[in-house]
Amino acid sequence: MKKVLVTGANGQLGQCLQKIAPLYKDLDFLFQSSKDLDITNDVAVELLFEKEQFNYCINCAAYTNVEQAEKTPEIAFKVNAEGVRTLALFSKKYNVSLIHISTDYVFDGEKKEPYTIDDIPNPINEYGKSKLLGEKYIQEIMENYAIIRTSWLYSEIGKNFYTTILKKAKAGENLAVTSNQTGCPTNANNLARYILELIVQNKKIVGIFHFTDGKSMTWYDFASKILLENNLQKQVKLVDRSNYLNFAQRPTCSILK
Ligand SMILES: NC(=O)C1=CN([C@@H]2O[C@H](COP(=O)(O)OP(=O)(O)OC[C@H]3O[C@@H](n4cnc5c(N)ncnc54)[C@H](OP(=O)(O)O)[C@@H]3O)[C@@H](O)[C@H]2O)C=CC1
Ligand SMILES: Cc1cn([C@H]2C[C@H](O)[C@@H](COP(=O)(O)OP(=O)(O)O[C@H]3O[C@@H](C)C(=O)[C@@H](O)[C@H]3O)O2)c(=O)[nH]c1=O
């Protein structure tokens, strides 16, 4: 039986993992929310790692508010960089394979083609910078790690672009959405399955991986798709708002391959 710790377990991806966990009878999960385990608390992390002797840690804990990270970057760096460093240090000490999730926002979006794992990151916002530093710490400290970069995660759970658009549309609000950014929406349920399959299939947990649902589009296209799939396209007016006001800059094109 492999013992698997999931941090940030009450977030979107964490809850998707919790949903499918019963299908994986050979994995013994411990799901820890931010209240159960704060990854920035090194004493608590070490105590748990020493006690439980995990085989794997899937790190779903992160600070994901891209707009707020611009205003209070120190909070983003504390979780996405220093918290990740703590997990890497104790994963190494207790021989745990670390599966960490990162983002398309580590890239600047200037490349005209999809980004591969060989492309050099150059984040343009604080969230992306904090996530990149987390990646760097893992690479410096560990050998048994997988950094899985994904993009535009959505699901029926929590606050994400999909649930925001659906909520606005159901409330009868007209929508103004930017077509100035292109990326690959990725269903968090698919990512959850991909991660657990890496473990049960005994895949080599080493290096950087890119995982998306494979179809690129703009946020505007994605909003249209959401309306169409939920049969709301006739009730709600959707307009292209390329100058949608944001605090944080986002990559123009961050397709991952
Ligand atoms: N959402 C997206 O579009 C994308 C996400 N990613 C990455 O995927 C991963 C999962 O994202 P997602 O599930 O969507 O994010 P969520 O924001 O839904 O979940 C993150 C979870 O981390 C928890 N958390 C925050 N700080 C700490 C801490 N110090 N210790 C422990 N837990 C903490 C949060 O708890 P609380 O709510 O209590 O603060 C929350 O439950 C993240 O690494 C993210 O960077 C990558 C690409 C796209
Ligand atoms: C809700 C909304 C957003 N937008 C714009 C704002 C922004 O440029 C873009 C996306 O909006 P959001 O703020 O929901 O998405 P954002 O927080 O930028 O999403 C990112 O989250 C982090 C965690 C990641 O790692 C990324 O992969 C990506 O998914 O769409 C509109 O134009 N109209 C709208 O009604």
From TrEMBL:
Keywords: NADP, Oxidoreductase. Its EC number is 1.1.1.133. The keyword NADP applies. GO terms for molecular function: dTDP-4-dehydrorhamnose reductase activity. Residues 3-256 form the RmlD-like substrate binding domain. It is an enzyme of class 1 (oxidoreductase). CDD domains: dTDP_HR_like_SDR_e. Pathway: Carbohydrate biosynthesis; dTDP-L-rhamnose biosynthesis. One of its GO terms (biological process) is dTDP-rhamnose biosynthetic process. The keyword Oxidoreductase applies. It catalyses: dTDP-beta-L-rhamnose + NADP(+) = dTDP-4-dehydro-beta-L-rhamnose + NADPH + H(+). InterPro entries: dTDP_dehydrorham_reduct, NAD(P)-bd_dom_sf, RmlD-like-bd. Catalyzes the reduction of dTDP-6-deoxy-L-lyxo-4-hexulose to yield dTDP-L-rhamnose. Belongs to the dTDP-4-dehydrorhamnose reductase family. This is dTDP-4-dehydrorhamnose reductase.
